[in-house]
UniProtKB/TrEMBL annotation:
Protein name (Swiss-Prot/TrEMBL): NADP-dependent oxidoreductase domain-containing protein
Site annotation Lowers pKa of active site Tyr: residues: K75
Location of the NADP-dependent oxidoreductase domain: 16-264
Annotated active site: Y50 (proton donor)
PANTHER family: 2,5-DIKETO-D-GLUCONIC ACID REDUCTASE, NADP-DEPENDENT OXIDOREDUCTASE DOMAIN-CONTAINING PROTEIN
Amino acid sequence: MNKYFKMNNGIAIPAIGFGTWQTPDGDIAIQSVEQAIKVGYRHIDTAAIYGNEQSIGSGIKKSGSNRKDLFITSKVWNTERGYDKTLRAFDKTIKDLQLDYLDLYLIHWPATANQFENWERLNTETWKAMEKIYNTGKVHAIGVSNFQPHHLEALLNSATIVPAINQIEFHPGFMQEKCVKYCKEHNILVEAWSPLGTGRMLSNNLLKTIADKYQKSVAQLCIRWILQNGVLPLPKSISPDRIKENFEIFDFEISKEDMQTINNMEYCGGSGLDPDKISF
């Protein structure tokens, strides 16, 4: 399996990313990023709201890796939507990460009708700022996160640049088929946050049985399954052993039959975070 996907602007993105949501700021975040890069991750995903960007930046520096060999993503938070606020938020993120540029910048959540009468305009203004940043060369790709097809449809009505990425919750038992289908039809690569269902997949008996067949862990099975569905997984851990294990998914292939079995799993393990109903 190829270790890279290609985004719609032609740029390669490493096929597995290292997630940092809920990673505590400080030494733990620094060490986790350093360890991830040491075992082979070249793609680090963070966000302003995680409150750990400074530590992520320190971990990147401590790793001693050449910046051009890494792919770094961050996201603009909901309170910073709109043109001017987004530009300022990006500048702060770059400063906190101690970087000259980002590889990918995302709108973290769409503005939606349950909170804003002018939700479409708000997303449009935020996206115009993203396009401006992209055109300056300070970010190599721009995208969105948690956008459903109707949010994307509204955005594409005014966008000059089609989002390269849509990062959504995706794991066994929660495949968001309609959203993934829409993204693939519009050449938008899907990334999977919570690829292990925030750990809830690890105790699933069906997944345990299938994983045993390949002599792999349930985590490895889930990550590999996501990749074979053409989606980019973003596993997260602060355990050095787990960080390493989660990256070791390129040496086996899940059969078509087992892929179908996992694809057919009933809803389970979802976070319940619906972008049209959130209040944050």
